[in-house]
Amino acid sequence: MTDSSWSRGRKALICCLAGVLLPFAVSAAESSGSVSTDVAFLWRNYRMECQAVIGFFVLFFLLLIGMVVYMIRFRAAIHRRRQDEREFRRRIYLERDRSNQALLTLEQTAKMANLAYFSCRADGSELTLSAGANRNWPLEDSKAVPPSQWVYPEDLASFEASWQELTQGRSPEIEISFRAGKGGARYFRLQAGARGVAEEGERRIVGCIQEVTDLRERERKFRDTDELLKIMADTLPCPIFIKDASDGFRYLLSNRSHAALLNRTPEEVAGRTDAEIFGPGHEYVERFRKADREALEAGRNLESVERVVDSRGNVRYLHGIKGIVVQSGGRKLLIGMASEVTELEETKQRAEESKRLLQAILDHVPVGILLKDPAADYRYVLWNRALSEFSGVPVEQVLGKNDFEANIYPGCAEQFRREDAKVVATGKAEVFVEDLQTVRDTRVVYHTHKIPLELEPGKTFLLGLCVDISREWKNQ
């Protein structure tokens, strides 16, 4: 710092001190009465001017501080506003991106689903279509072709009637199914409704049109397959039914033969349960439900012979097979079919009756009767009660065994085998008198006839008739 600047600084400091100390000095002098009236007057003027200057500077500084505060708050408000504007733009851009993404997704979804959307004025004019909509609604010179030029004539009347209901305000929404296209029918489904547009202040019609040809073809094939299945099931002479095990064993299919057994028509059986068909207390309900549950729990095909009484009161026997089929969705179907075995069952019953009658005769005749199968190592097929009494060996220990295994008469198996083989080889009956020891350590004498017997073509059995002559032999 130079001397001149230092001197100027000292002068300014002295002036400031004088300006600060002078008022106090003058006030002290005035109060002591040592200052003249003129000086006092000048001093008062000076003081008033100083106060005015000080007030001006105070006001100036207050204004300056207010302007600074205002500028700070103004800049903060501008900053907040800019932040709000940036946030608003960010949200607008984000909503626009979301809208564009949703629109793109909608377009892709519509393309995958053969779907197009459109909009028009409430009276049907100014029709606009989405991108690629010409697959479903034809265009000509970038304008939508009127329905009268591409909808099938058979469906045009219903199409126009429904469209007029929407455009004239009689119906808020419509759904139309129709055919269109050239070179082969294509199936479409149109859904549309009137909506208010707030920005334009008017009502517009918005809707979508979808090609459902593939769906209709699948439905047609399903109906054809279902109809073919029903025809085949009705043509077969055996009863066939299908139940939904996941829905209380409700009938899905009952062919004519099965429905006739229930004294119903196929239409009366389909869609109903046994309880709904016969009533909760009918004997068939519990019987069928028990059999159905057994098949469901078994997890395999079950076979059974059922005795049923048809609508005419005739007793019929059915050989039934039931099985469970699990579909891809987890649905369980009970499939059953049966074949008529009434004649076979009646024949078996007659055979059983004949067998019981023959067994009764064989058990009460006083002659021992046996039957052996040479093809099965001469195993016993028949052994009546008289032989059990003569030998002391019950029938349960003889049937299915040969003489070596049964050992009915100890030490005689080789002898019986030689006799049996001779009769079978010669094909002629032989007569033997045999003195045998029994397992009860007693002796018995038989007058035995062994006869080759051809009961079936190419199959020979050995019939033995044994008369107990032990008493006569002992007397002789």
Topology:
Layout: H1 3-32, H2 37-112, E1 115-121, E2 128-129, E3 139-140, E4 143-144, H3 153-167, E5 173-180, E6 186-197, E7 202-211, H4 213-235, E8 240-244, E9 250-254, H5 256-261, H6 266-269, H7 274-278, H8 283-298, E10 302-309, E11 315-326, E12 332-340, H9 342-364, E13 368-373, E14 379-383, H10 385-391, H11 403-406, H12 413-426, E15 430-437, E16 443-456, E17 459-468, H13 470-475
Antiparallel strand pairs: 1-2, 1-7, 3-4, 5-6, 6-7, 8-9, 8-12, 10-11, 11-12, 13-14, 13-17, 15-16, 16-17
Which terms would index this structure?
five-stranded antiparallel sheet; alpha+beta; 13 helices
Briefly say what this structure is.
This protein has 476 residues and is of the alpha+beta class. It has helices at 3-32, 37-112, 153-167, 213-235, 256-261, 266-269, 274-278, 283-298, 342-364, 385-391, 403-406, 413-426, 470-475, and strands at 115-121, 128-129, 139-140, 143-144, 173-180, 186-197, 202-211, 240-244, 250-254, 302-309, 315-326, 332-340, 368-373, 379-383, 430-437, 443-456, 459-468.
